[in-house]
Amino acid sequence: MAENTSPAITMTCEVCSEYYTDPLMLPCLHSFCKKCLIKAKEKQGSADTSLKCPTCDTSINLPDGKIEGLTQNLWFEHKSKEASIKRKIVSKEVTSCDKCIIDDSSDAAVVYCCDCGQFLCDLCKKVHKRSRKEANHKLIDLETKESIELPTVKHEAIYCIQHLEKLTYYCKDCDKLVCQICLNIHHKSHNYNYYIDEGDTARKALKESVASCDKVIPPVTEAIANGEKMLEQIATHKEEMRQEIKETFEKLKAALDKRCNDLLMETEEIAGTKRNSVEKQLDRFRKLVKQVSHGRHLASSVSERTDPGEVLSVKKLITNQLEEFIEESKKLPLEIEDKKVVVARLDILTLSKEINEFGSVSE
Question: Where does the RING-type domain lie (predicted)?
């Protein structure tokens, strides 16, 4: 048998959180109190002939545009009443007598009649015991401190939600319970029967549906498990790819940083060589200027001396040296050589294009 993956069925309405009152089942198989669906429809707008399920948000087309056309969930109605009665008995909460119409403290129920399905006050209990028809009914004392065997609640007569008549027939063509008025108006020419006689057939059909579902659920469940496993694999592979991409670009960043440092070092080397060349030329210029200035100053000073011996003693050396300096200046280029500027060739557009096209991610 297929594993039951459905949530537990509770007898409380998901909208009001209370036991169902006149529960109606939507085509999406979710049930709600009639009053709750009416309120939901009013909020949605009376002009709309559809209704959104409060649980799964499925849009439901209402029969004849009315809430009353929805399927009565008699199972939930009976189970809710049964759960409510058992809760009142177990909790020993103060419950009013179902027969009395006078609402005072004397009407608090003291027993529950399992046969009538009613809570009875002390007075009604006594009347009950004196009645020939009801004398042998099973009564549960609500005030006893002993453990109580909770009753099986009897099924009451069921009524048509539209006509308030007893639901007596089952229309096989429409697959629904109908009252005498419904039968006369809508189903007289249809194939119908007393609903009491159709129970076994309905139970058999439901069991066949369950068996069919048991064939569907395992393969679909397996497909879900495979899909969930695939999602895990996708997540794992995604993280692996993310890590690989990040590591690759960290390496690219490291390579770019290294290339940047290499280019900076080359720039420093080229600039250093050019700087040394210019400084060497400047040193020659400065030395020549210093030598010429010094010789000129000496020549000028000696030329002012009045003693011929003083002048003649140094005249030859000074004039010869000055002539050499002058000749050297003529040979010395007065423009600094190597005017070329250091240029960095960085084709950022080409590199950006290559980066934009670098790598790919595909299935």
Answer: 13-57
Segments of the chain with pLDDT less than 50: 1-3
Domain interval for residue 130: 92-156
Query: Does the residue 249 lie in any domain?
Result: yes
- pTM above 0.70? no
pLDDT of residue 2: 44
Of residues 69, 64, 67, the one with CA closest to residue 38: 67
The reply to whether 338 falls in a domain is: yes
On the 0-12 / 13-18 / 19+ scale of CB atoms within 10 A, 55 is middle
Is residue 113 included in any domain, yes or no?
yes
Contact 170, 192 (CB under 8 A): yes
**Are 145 and 62 found together in one domain?**
no
- Length of the chain (residues): 363
Give the separation between CA 301 and CA 265, rounded to whole angstroms.
53
pLDDT of amino acid 253: 95
Where among 88, 117, 145 does a domain terminate?
88
Structural domains of the chain, count? 3
Query: Among 156, 176, 198, which residue terminates a domain?
Result: 156
CB 13 within 8 A of CB 23: yes
